[in-house]
Backbone:
């Protein structure tokens, strides 16, 4: 299965411009044969947590969600997008959604680990564990940005059966070790393929790293981007995770009863 990752510069609160970028990328990726396009964290509204919280009318979110479904449907490609969501209790959270090629929602997830003062001022952390769905024959899950830097998040997805983890992110310049080292370690230790799609350029004073990557379940680098805008592609072998888990059974040989005694 061919994955496509959008690495691009969004415009804060310019929904029309950002949607045009997603639509064009979806069209190009679909023509290339990609099954899914993964877009960066909060890309449709831009990554600027305080400005988004103060300037985005939440009544527009259902229309924007339908816009994303229309992009997937019209281009015949799966789509991962990230938007704010408002809970029944009025809490704002950062979310990610996986759509199939018909625009139907397969999976939604709320960000559990918020990064930095701006995110904590604008959003509340979610609590649900990563869920798993079948996407084109591969058990697939979602986490968002900082979540993937915690081994517990990735391991929870893997224990639930995930073999592919799709990750919208907004990683600033200066954190090069996250995509270059940490992501590959996460993929190796939980034997999942991880696709990590980041912003590039500067948005609202934040300079983004780029550096989007796809890491295989053996920790190998399947694809990697530099700092410039681009569409990144990687072919995922549907049998790769199962082979790695058979060769070295990390998941089967865990000892969670003992870890609980250790206070983990």
Residues:
């Amino acid at each position: 299965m061919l994955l496509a990752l959008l690495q691009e510069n969004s415009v804060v609160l310019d929904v029309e411009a950002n949607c045009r970028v997603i639509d064009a990328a979806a069209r190009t990726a679909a023509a290339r044969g990609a099954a899914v396009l993964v877009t960066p964290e909060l890309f449709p509204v831009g990554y600027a947590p305080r400005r988004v919280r103060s300037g985005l009318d939440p009544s527009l979110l259902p229309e924007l969600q339908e816009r994303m479904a229309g992009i997937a449907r019209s281009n015949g490609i799966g789509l991962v997008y990230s938007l704010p969501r408002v809970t029944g209790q009025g809490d704002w959270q950062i979310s990610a959604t996986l759509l199939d090629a018909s625009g139907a929602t397969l999976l939604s997830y709320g960000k559990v680990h918020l990064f930095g003062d701006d995110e904590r001022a604008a959003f509340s952390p979610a609590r649900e564990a990563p869920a798993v769905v079948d996407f084109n024959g591969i058990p697939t899950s979602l986490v968002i940005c900082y979540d993937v830097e915690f081994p517990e998040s990735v391991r929870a997805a893997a224990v639930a059966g995930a073999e592919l983890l799709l990750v919208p992110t907004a990683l600033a310049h200066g954190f090069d070790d996250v995509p270059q080292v940490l992501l590959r370690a996460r993929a190796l230790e939980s034997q999942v393929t991880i696709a990590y799609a980041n912003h590039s350029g500067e948005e609202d004073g934040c300079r983004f790293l780029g550096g989007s990557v796809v890491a295989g379940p053996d920790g190998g680098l399947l694809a990697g981007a530099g700092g410039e805008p681009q569409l990144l592609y990687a072919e995922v072998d549907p049998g790769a995770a199962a082979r790695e888990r058979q060769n070295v059974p990390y998941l089967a040989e865990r000892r969670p009863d003992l870890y609980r005694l250790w206070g983990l």
Summary: The chain is about 30% helix and 25% strand. Residues 15-32 form the longest helix (18 residues).
